[in-house]
Structures are given as structure tokens and as C-alpha cells.
């Protein structure tokens, strides 16, 4: 499935742009500027028809003007291009505080009123439109999900190009002008984003037109790119693979019609070049072109008063936020505001009812070509369910024959095979993204049906550049920012995918996950017209417990703590899964690939590990989120239980199971509980999809000690169960910020989650005095096993050779379950 082809894309103009059209574009610019100022300042009397007084000004002036007039200018011209070329177009508005421009655009093209009927196209509607902006009970100040046409909020700087390029992948008819703020251009993610042009193909993908909005200042300082020489600036972008075209306006008294004429001509030149690139790409895979980009240099706060209180305003950092902060409080500032508003001649732009005059919008696109109505900007409208293969075809079936705990398989490799066949069935609507780690995280089966998309030159496709082609459904760049941003843009425009990263480096994009969750939260709560998009699926692998090669720097499971902050209010936009083996990972993946409007964090190791469950058992446990493993428990009822043994995650569960084996030999009665869906533990008062208190008590008992081995930081669990039955009896062991480049046993040992410590802890919880000698023996053996590793460089056989006693190793065809002692983490 590709996004729908709207209009007649990539068509050059046959005739010059008329003066009448340019006059209409200028009126658009003026009305958009007026609407933007009105949103920041006015609470009433929106067209100043009644006597205009300070009472018409908002009490709190919130918003940003500096970047807005330049955005209004650009969006006006983009609207003209869309209409004249009938070009399928989505805009990305990168400058963080250009919200008034985005909402003004949607109001002008009519989509705002269509989605919010109370915002009528008259004076009363205009007053509501102004008052709601950055106002109690109103809308935020950014190009937020509440604004039709937005797929990039812009409040978090750095991701405009990542989202833009993600949107055009497998979307060959889509044109995305991506407006990049010059403050945003100083961020690391944006600097990385310029490289995206090496990861798309103009034949199978759309085109991104970066527009650097160079207005010279951030909040209080000049911007770097505005102060370097033109030669250096152009060389920089040419080195990034672009052909830069510079446009300068607003620094002299040039009349507006001349400015519009010059920019329209430049935009046509650039678009003609894009059309040529698209046409050449249809015949064969040509060498990567230098894609055009525009450097748009204008004053900050363009068209606002040049000086306020004797201080330079237009063209300075003072225009960034609210240039007239005292417009309600002082008559002097109020009169400046009045003159500023009148400078746009609103009487020429609005009719007697307060509606925008038809001649203002005569040049604009209609129907789904409107920026606010393009279905690519409301991707749920065009999203189709994935064609998923039969999950049973990928099941590890040997566990049913040889017993729970059979074998040593890499769970994520099995996921890779399943995902390979999803790509095969959905060849242009599903992608894998990864920062150079697709194969490292065992998803390389995808290369049997697709390639890594790469257009940055080749040496030898047989010797070094394996699985690399100009077209492919796997995208790799060594940047977590890019991977999340690409996938986010891909999802928001109606497609599906997964990205993977080493667990410790998911933290690099904590804020991106946070912002995407907020987008989804706003959508789920308040924006029913935004149709559900496919979920963001994140495979968190190479995790804390098996960093054999990388050590302490690569040991950080804390992404769970971040995501738990998004789990209130019953929005259900975050899931945190800990599949314990290959079959559970398959079940989780199937559920994740079917889901919408969620972030699915799937924490799964890639090292050889036992398979504990059949696929049916995995699905049943996943349905509830947690389950007793009756086949592993030796207590027949909760009354008989002396201690509950609970595991969350593959390695913690491995250690819990080994501890259970040893406790069974000591005659301790226990039940084993496994948790796959972490949020099912959350208080039922905070999460209406969590286990009920009755179900929780049935699993963990009403009053028996619970030894809980958890993959991440223990405070995650403590926070989730704070008011659950029996919570005071939970003893949670998790990662304790201890580790190094060491053996698998030593890694769990230093964090007190190894099987020997868990047995000792369980005995302390049951009867410390009675089992004192055994506890001492276990503690001594822990040190002995550590010294063994120090002396030999590998772990003690008591650790490595353990197999769950239920595994049948003597049947024909049985495979040894001996644990591996090392793995590939690079």
C-alpha cells in the first residue's frame, strides 16, 4: 500500500504566474500575519470595528511572533504551488514557535472550521479563534496535533528533516517542503538530518525540499548559520548533497509584489529541477542528484514595528516572542499594536461579516489538495491493516515435545523471520529502521526479501556492501534520532514499521518518545477526527544483562522508567513488554503489529536462551499480562505457598527458574509467576486495563512473601504496585547500576539477581534462622563462582550447564540445552 496519489504530481507549469495570483498571495500573507498577531494579542473585537481599547487585549500575552511572518510568507507560496501544479503536498514546520502560522493557514483554507465548527468564518468565529490560542481551555502554541495538516509539532527542535524524509519513503507522489528554523539547525539531530538524502530513492520515494528559514536570531542570541559567510554556507550545504538557492528579502524598501514575484520565480525554478529529478529516476537508478534546497533569509519578526521603545525590534532577537509585552498595560504600547494591526489593511481582507474575502483565497488549492485536508497528514485515514502471516508457522514447536525450558534459541532471530515475511506481504508499507544494528539485533532475515536502502555510493556489493541497494525496506543510519524520526514520519502518513536499538542508547531519544506519546495522548483524548495510526514498535535489545563486549557504559535499562511516566489517565498509549522467549516474542510482535496509537517497547534479548512456553501458552499469558507457570510451581494452592517467585524479562526469569529448581530440592513450597505486560501490574485505580485487585491477589497471594526479579530498576515495580494487595511483602531485585565487561554470571551477581542470591533471599524470607547454614553456603559459592570466572575467563559449570529438570534431553531428535557463554553484542 502506498499513500494515495492526489492531483497530478510532478508537473511543470506551462505559463508564467500572473500578477493577479501574486497579488492574492500577498493578501494571503497579510491576512495570515493579521490572524497570527490576533491570536497572540486579542481576546475581543477581532477586526477593530468597535472602538478598539486595551480591554480587547488578552491579560496574558503568550506566543511567538519572530518566526511567524516568514512562515506565513512561505506557506502562502507553497499553497500557490500546490494549486498551480496540483501537487500532493504535506508541510513540515520545524521552527518551534510558529504555531500561529499553522493555525492561520488552516483557518484560511477552511479546514479549521470543518474540524471545529464552532470556529465559524465570521467575526464571531474569528473572536473564538483568537481567544483560544494559548488560552485556558484553548489550544497550544505549537503546530500541534489539534491543527489540521500537522504531522510535526515543532515544539521539540531538531526532527523536522527526520519526519519529512520518513513521510516521503514509499510515497513517490508526496512533496514535503520542510521549513527548518536556523535555531533548530544548531541541534545535533537536525545536523544529522541533512544526511537523509542518501537514504531515499527519487523513483520510489517522494521529495523533500528543505527550506532553511534564516532569520538571524534565537531567543536571545544570533544563530550560527546566519553569521557565517555566504560562501561557507553554500559549501556546507553542497557538502551535504544539496544545491542551495538563496533568497533574501525584507532588509530594504522593496515593494511586496516584487518580493513575491522573485520568490515565486525561484520556487518554480526549484520545482522544475525536482520534476527533472523525478523524471530521470523513472527510467533507471541514476547517480544520486544534488537535491535543491532554499536558504530563505529575512528579518526576524518581519513586518512588525522596526523599533519599540527606541530599541531595534524587527530584525533582532527582541521580536522572538511578544514584541509588545505591555500592550494591555500601557497606552503607548497599545497604540503601537493598533498601528501594527492596521498596517495589514484588514478592511481589504475581510468582508462586512468578518469572513475572509474570496479574492484572498482565490489562488489556493481545493479539496484534499489543501494543506489541512491532505490525507497524508491524517495518516489513519489511509492506513490499511498489515497482511500478517500465520503466527503458528513460526512457533518453536519443540517445547511441546521436549518440555518447558527446551533449547537455546535467539528470540529476536525468530522475530526477524516473522518480520521478513511481513515485509514480503506488505512490500511498500512496512519498514525496519535501525542505527547500524539490524543484523546485530538478529533481524537480518529481512535481507532475504529486501535490502538496506542506500544511495551514498558503493565499493563492492559482493565483498563489503552486502544487502545494499538504492531501493529497500530497511533503513540504517547510526542515529537513534533519525530512526525514531523516520519511523514517526512513516507512521503519521499511514504506514507501519519497527525500529531497534541497543537498550542503553534508546535513552538518546527519550524526549522524542516522550513527544510522540504526548501527540498520541492528545489525539486519543481530544481529537477524534485524527484517525488511528499504526503503533511505534521499538525493539529494545542488546540489553543490560548481556553486554559481554561493551560493559558498564552499555548497561542502562531506564527507558522503562521514562515510559512509565506516560501511563496515567487511561490513555493507553504506551506498552512495555518483556517477552521471556521466542514464542512469547512472536505473540507480542503479532499484538504490536496489529495495534494503533501506541508506543510498544519490546525488551528482548538476542542471546541464546531457553524456550519456556508453547505459542498457545504465550498468547494466553499475554492476554492477561501475567500468569502462574503451574508446570513450574510445586505449591498446589496459595495456602500452601511459602514464597512466590516472580520474573519479568528473559534473564531475570532464567535466574528465577534456576532458583526454583534449587528451592524445590530444599523442600520449599512456591509458585512461579511470569509477567510479560508490565503495565498490568499498575494500580487498577490508575489503569483500567490492569489486573483487578482480585486477579493480582490470586497471582501473588494475599499475605505471602514475593521474591520479584525484574529486568530494569526496582523502583519501577515498587511504583506500580504501591497500593496493590500484599505490596508490602514484595522484595524486588533489579538492576542496581553495577556492571562491567564481564561474564553473564558475574553481571547478574554484582546486581544481586543471580540464582544463588535469589535462593538465599527466598530462604531469608521464609525462615532466615532455620536456613542460616544454607544461606551462608550459597553466599560462599557466589564468591567461589566469581573467582572461577576470574581465573578461567568463563563461568562456572554449575551456572552454565544448568537445565530445567523438566526438559527431555534423551528423546530422539532432542537438542542440547547447554547455555552459551558468550554472544555478539557488536
TrEMBL record:
The keyword Lyase applies. Keywords: Lyase, Thiamine pyrophosphate. Residues 606-804 form the Xylulose 5-phosphate/Fructose 6-phosphate phosphoketolase C-terminal domain. InterPro entries: Phosphoketolase, THDP-binding, Transketo_C/PFOR_II, Xul5P/Fru6P_PKetolase, Xul5P/Fru6P_PKetolase_C, Xul5P/Fru6P_PKetolase_CS, Xul5P/Fru6P_PKetolase_N, Xul5P/Fru6P_PKetolase_ThDP_BS. Residues 17-381 form the Xylulose 5-phosphate/Fructose 6-phosphate phosphoketolase N-terminal domain. HAMAP family: Phosphoketolase (MF_01403). The keyword Lyase applies. Its cofactor is thiamine diphosphate. This is Probable phosphoketolase. Belongs to the XFP family. GO terms for molecular function: aldehyde-lyase activity; magnesium ion binding. One of its GO terms (biological process) is carbohydrate metabolic process. It holds the Pfam family XFP_N. Its EC number is 4.1.2.-.
Amino acid at each position: 500500500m502506498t499513500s494515495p496519489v492526489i492531483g497530478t504530481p510532478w508537473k511543470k507549469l506551462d505559463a508564467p504566474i500572473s500578477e493577479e495570483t501574486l497579488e492574492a498571495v500577498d493578501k494571503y500573507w497579510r491576512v495570515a500575519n493579521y490572524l497570527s498577531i490576533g491570536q497572540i494579542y486579542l481576546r475581543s473585537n477581532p477586526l477593530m470595528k468597535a472602538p478598539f481599547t486595551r480591554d480587547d487585549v488578552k491579560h496574558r500575552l503568550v506566543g511567538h511572533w519572530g518566526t511567524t511572518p516568514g512562515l506565513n510568507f512561505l506557506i502562502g507560496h507553497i499553497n500557490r504551488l500546490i494549486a498551480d501544479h496540483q501537487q500532493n503536498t504535506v508541510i513540515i514546520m520545524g521552527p518551534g514557535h510558529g504555531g500561529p502560522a499553522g493555525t492561520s493557514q488552516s483557518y484560511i483554507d477552511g479546514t479549521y472550521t470543518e474540524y471545529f465548527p464552532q470556529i465559524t468564518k465570521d467575526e464571531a468565529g474569528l473572536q473564538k479563534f483568537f481567544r483560544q490560542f494559548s488560552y485556558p481551555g484553548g489550544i497550544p502554541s505549537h503546530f500541534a496535533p489539534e491543527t489540521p495538516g500537522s504531522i510535526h509539532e515543532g515544539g521539540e527542535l531538531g526532527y523536522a528533516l527526520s519526519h519529512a524524509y520518513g513521510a516521503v519513503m514509499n510515497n513517490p507522489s508526496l512533496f514535503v517542503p520542510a521549513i527548518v528554523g536556523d535555531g533548530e539547525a544548531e541541534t545535533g539531530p537536525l545536523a544529522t538530518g541533512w544526511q537523509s538524502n542518501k537514504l531515499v530513492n527519487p523513483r520510489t520515494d517522494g521529495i523533500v525540499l528543505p527550506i532553511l528559514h534564516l532569520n538571524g536570531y534565537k531567543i536571545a542570541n544570533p544563530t550560527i548559520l546566519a553569521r557565517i559567510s555566504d560562501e561557507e554556507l553554500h559549501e556546507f550545504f553542497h557538502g551535504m548533497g544539496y544545491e542551495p538557492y538563496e533568497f533574501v528579502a525584507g532588509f530594504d524598501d522593496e515593494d511586496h509584489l516584487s518580493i513575491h514575484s522573485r520568490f515565486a520565480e525561484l520556487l518554480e525554478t526549484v520545482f522544475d529541477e525536482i520534476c527533472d529529478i523525478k523524471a530521470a529516476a523513472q527510467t533507471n537508478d541514476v547517480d544520486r542528484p544534488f537535491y535543491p534546497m532554499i536558504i530563505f533569509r529575512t528579518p526576524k519578526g518581519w513586518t512588525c514595528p522596526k523599533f519599540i521603545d527606541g530599541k531595534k525590534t524587527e530584525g533582532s532577537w527582541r521580536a522572538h516572542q511578544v514584541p509588545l509585552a505591555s500592550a494591555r498595560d500601557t497606552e503607548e504600547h497599545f497604540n503601537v499594536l493598533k498601528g501594527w494591526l492596521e498596517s495589514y489593511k484588514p478592511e481589504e481582507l475581510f468582508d462586512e461579516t468578518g469572513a475572509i474575502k474570496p479574492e484572498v483565497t482565490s489562488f489556493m488549492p481545493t479539496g484534499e489538495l489543501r494543506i489541512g485536508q491532505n490525507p497524508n497528514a491524517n495518516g489513519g485515514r489511509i492506513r490499511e491493516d498489515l497482511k500478517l502471516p500465520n503466527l503458528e508457522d513460526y512457533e518453536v514447536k519443540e517445547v511441546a515435545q521436549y518440555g518447558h525450558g527446551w533449547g537455546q534459541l535467539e528470540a529476536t532471530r525468530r522475530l526477524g523471520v516473522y518480520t521478513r515475511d511481513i515485509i514480503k506481504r506488505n512490500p511498500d508499507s512496512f519498514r525496519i529502521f535501525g542505527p547500524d544494528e539490524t543484523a546485530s539485533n538478529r533481524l537480518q532475515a529481512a535481507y532475504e526479501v529486501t535490502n538496506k536502502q542506500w544511495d551514498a555510493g558503493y565499493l563492492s556489493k559482493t565483498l563489503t556492501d552486502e544487502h545494499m541497494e538504492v531501493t529497500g525496506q530497511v533503513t540504517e543510519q547510526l542515529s537513534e534520532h533519525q530512526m525514531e524520526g523516520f519511523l514517526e514520519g512513516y507512521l503519521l502518513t499511514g504506514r507501519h514499521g519497527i525500529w531497534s536499538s541497543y537498550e542503553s542508547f534508546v535513552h538518546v531519544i527519550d524526549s522524542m518518545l516522550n513527544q510522540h506519546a504526548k501527540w498520541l495522548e492528545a489525539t486519543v483524548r481530544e481529537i477524534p477526527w485524527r484517525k488511528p495510526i499504526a503503533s511505534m514498535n521499538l525493539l529494545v535489545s542488546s540489553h543490560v544483562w548481556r553486554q559481554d563486549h561493551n560493559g558498564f557504559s552499555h548497561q542502562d535499562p531506564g527507558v522503562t522508567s521514562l515510559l512509565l511516566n506516560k501511563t496515567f489517565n487511561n490513555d493507553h498509549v504506551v506498552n512495555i513488554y518483556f517477552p521471556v522467549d521466542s514464542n512469547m516474542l512472536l505473540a507480542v510482535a503479532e499484538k504490536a503489529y496489529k495495534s494503533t496509537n501506541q508506543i510498544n517497547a519490546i525488551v528482548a534479548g538476542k542471546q541464546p536462551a531457553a524456550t519456556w512456553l508453547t505459542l498457545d501458552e504465550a498468547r494466553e499469558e499475554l492476554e492477561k499480562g501475567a500468569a502462574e507457570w503451574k508446570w513450574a510451581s510445586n505449591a498446589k494452592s496459595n495456602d500452601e505457598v511459602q514464597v512466590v517467585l516472580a520474573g519479568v524479562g528473559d534473564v531475570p526469569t532464567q535466574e528465577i527458574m534456576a532458583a526454583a529448581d534449587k528451592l524445590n530440592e530444599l523442600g520449599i513450597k512456591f509458585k512461579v509467576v511470569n509477567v510479560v505486560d508490565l503495565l498490568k501490574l499498575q494500580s487498577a485505580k490508575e489503569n483500567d486495563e490492569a489486573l483487578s485487585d482480585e486477579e493480582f491477589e490470586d497471582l501473588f497471594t494475599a499475605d505471602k512473601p514475593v521474591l520479584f526479579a525484574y529486568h530494569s530498576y526496582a523502583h519501577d515495580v515498587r511504583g506500580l504496585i504501591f497500593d496493590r494487595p500484599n505490596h508490602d511483602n514484595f522484595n524486588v531485585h533489579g538492576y542496581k547500576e553495577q556492571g562491567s565487561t564481564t561474564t553473564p554470571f558475574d553481571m547478574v551477581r554484582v546486581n544481586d539477581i543471580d540464582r544463588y542470591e535469589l535462593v538465599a533471599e527466598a530462604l531469608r524470607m521464609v525462615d532466615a534462622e532455620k536456613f542460616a547454614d544454607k544461606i551462608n553456603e550459597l553466599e560462599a559459592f557466589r564468591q567461589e563462582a566469581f573467582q572461577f570466572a576470574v581465573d578461567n575467563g568463563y563461568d562456572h559449570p554449575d551456572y552454565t550447564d544448568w537445565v530445567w529438570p523438566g526438559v527431555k534431553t534423551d528423546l530422539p531428535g532432542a537438542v542440547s540445552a547447554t547455555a552459551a557463554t558468550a554472544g555478539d553484542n557488536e
